Amino acid sequence: MDRFTLIVPIYSNVFEDQIRIFLSENIGDVIVVLTKEIDFSLNDDRVKVFKLYGAGYGKAVNYASKFTKKDYLIITNDDILFEADLFKRIKCLKDDIVVPLVKDKNKKDIESFGSKILFFYNILNKNINFDKRKLHLTGSFFIIKREIFENIRGFDEKYFMYYEDIDLSVRLKRRWKILFDENMVVFHKHSSSDLKNKRYFLQRNRLYFVLKNFDFKNLVLFAFIMIFVEPFVMAFQILKEKSFLPFKARYDFFKGMKNFLRK
């Protein structure tokens, strides 16, 4: 049963309680990537700890994946809590890629069951009856065969954070099937985060994602939206946030577009 490596990039939560739960199941080892100085004190031979300060989510996971030869990678954020029966289902896993149902820890409502693309935006899906063929994985928690993750070269690190998960999903779905399992449940407890940075990367990375992954027909439509709709959206965001970050996000993308789109 020693088939799994749990990979956790740590930004704000030490995650030690959840790691202990995983280790108690005796199904594999753990790789922790500290992306900033944080007091992580768990001492166990099955836990490797690396320091990669300033790394984005994708870079941290890609780096960790190089240090395991287990069959599966369990990739999770540091603000996820494991449901009681989670590992009973994981132990029987045979699928290539699995995405669970994510519930809000406090409200117990569905927070996400994969995500979907709507008008060139990545939107969390909360409907378990939505057509699963149109869903994409979410990076908060998913399980993937290591060989597949290596074959597709992991996350695109240019995103730094946000949209790297749906970018990975688009690439995966060209060759493999993603299973969305509503009976596999994890909880999200919402860690504190820098909202300004979050909004900046969401707005900047959406542009990169669209230009990288959409076909010519959709890009023509997107160009129309960028010229005639996007300025009004940006103005609304600037007024709402009382910040010029929405403008900076778009400016920074177009300023460095050659670097973004370089293979």
Automatic annotation (TrEMBL):
<keyword id="KW-0808">Transferase</keyword>
<dbReference type="Pfam" id="PF00535">
    <property type="entry name" value="Glycos_transf_2"/>
</dbReference>
<dbReference type="InterPro" id="IPR001173">
    <property type="entry name" value="Glyco_trans_2-like"/>
</dbReference>
<dbReference type="InterPro" id="IPR029044">
    <property type="entry name" value="Nucleotide-diphossugar_trans"/>
</dbReference>
<keyword id="KW-0328">Glycosyltransferase</keyword>
<protein>
    <recommendedName>
        <fullName>Glycosyltransferase 2-like domain-containing protein</fullName>
    </recommendedName>
</protein>
<keyword id="KW-1133">Transmembrane helix</keyword>
<feature type="domain" description="Glycosyltransferase 2-like">
    <location>
        <begin position="43"/>
        <end position="152"/>
    </location>
</feature>
<keyword id="KW-0472">Membrane</keyword>
<keyword id="KW-0812">Transmembrane</keyword>
<feature type="transmembrane region" description="Helical">
    <location>
        <begin position="219"/>
        <end position="239"/>
    </location>
</feature>
<comment type="similarity">
    <text>Belongs to the glycosyltransferase 2 family.</text>
</comment>
<dbReference type="GO" id="GO:0016757">
    <property type="term" value="F:glycosyltransferase activity"/>
</dbReference>
